[in-house]
Structure prediction request, 418 residues.
Amino acid sequence: MKILIIGSGGREHAIAWKFAQNSKVEKIYVAPGNAGTELLDICENIELFNIEEMVEFAENNKIGLTMVGSEELLVEGIVDKFEERGLTIFGPNKKSAILEGSKAYSKNFMKKYGVKTAAYEIFSDYDNAIKYLDTIEYPTVIKASGLAAGKGVIIAQNKEEALEAVKEMLLDNKFKQTSARIVIEEFLIGAEASILSITDGETIIPFISAKDHKKIGEGETGLNTGGMGVIAPNPYVTSDIMKDFIDDIMVPTLEGLKSEKMKFNGVIFFGLMITEKGIYSLEYNMRLGDPETQAVLPLMENDFLEILEMCIDGDLDKVKMSWKNSSACCVVGVSGGYPESYNKGYEITGISGVNDLVFIAGAKLEKEKLLTSGGRVINIVSLEKNLETACKKAYNSIDKINFEGLFYRRDIGKLYNI
Ligand code: AMP
Ligand code: GLY
Prediction:
């Protein structure tokens, strides 16, 4: 079987690594891929510039399964284009991808189907939005409705900050069409959790819980990033919380999918907040998380490709997931300056001395040298019986890696009171 993976991050390297464990896989094309996928024997990196080229490539090369890493192409409708041509692709169609593509849509969906979420209002009119700011408590959360690569969420500490954010989004068009509509929502205090799941629209199966570390600075301070590290399972997701997640969030979401006739084979990644009042849904992502995938897939005992195939065949209800009785810690090494401006092209050394899993993100191979080529550069993933040793081991490993400007948080896996 030949597979096509679309994307270039640490997530796509981890997906390719997991697929490669299935002996019937003969070749994995990754578009565009990175140095990590280039170094896997079974992989070949290719350049495909738009959906039409991807469809043609899949057709001409008899690709048995295509998997898309990030959200943009899903929201654009890549799944519909593949399916129109009879090609097998795993992911939500355009109609369902809107659950990630529009926060206004997904909040209304959650309200309609009783999915537990923060109170909110939606605005496209500036005057109405600022009137509303007189009636609420602070801090408050202001979100651009459309896709903004994690940058469209502002936590306003007071009314002045909220006015500024509303003005930027609705009047100054800071995020262009993305912020033509905004969501203003109740600020929740607690611990975040990510739960990935797989669904065929009839059945939904949650994966092991994970915890991302989104901010650049230790103690969750500073600017938002794509993710600076992950631990799995998430220690805040106790069995009681998991039960509440299933009853208050996952099951009503599935009911909503059925009622809205959102039928697809794909992933729902629930972005969650665990508060004193229980677990709340913050958002849906309709794809695997990065870096969540790098910590979650190594804990999965099942063959990932087999699960996807069962899902596509309508047999998801027969899948029994099984997870290693271990903890995973993923630490992300980034280029100095990230998530703002940073330099690229520095040589990365020390990987051969690492005894843990290494998933490459923003790095390319040039004349056999590994050079940085992005903000998030490298993921080190350690699996151990408990979280503390997993994190200690991941840090021992990443300490061996070197490139100019390398930065990583020292507190991945450190638990704070909520
Ligand atoms: P989202 O893209 O909706 O997941 O928001 C990005 C990040 O903003 C989340 O991971 C949280 O850290 C934070 N955030 C979003 N919504 C809220 C909320 N209602 N209360 C507190 N923090 C939030
Ligand atoms: N780690 C968060 C995301 O993939 O969106």
Observations:
- The chain has 13 helices and 22 strands.
- Residues 327-398 form a domain with the Glycinamide Ribonucleotide Synthetase; Chain A, domain 4 fold (CATH 3.90.600.10).
- The chain has four domains: 2-93, 119-186, 191-318, 327-398.
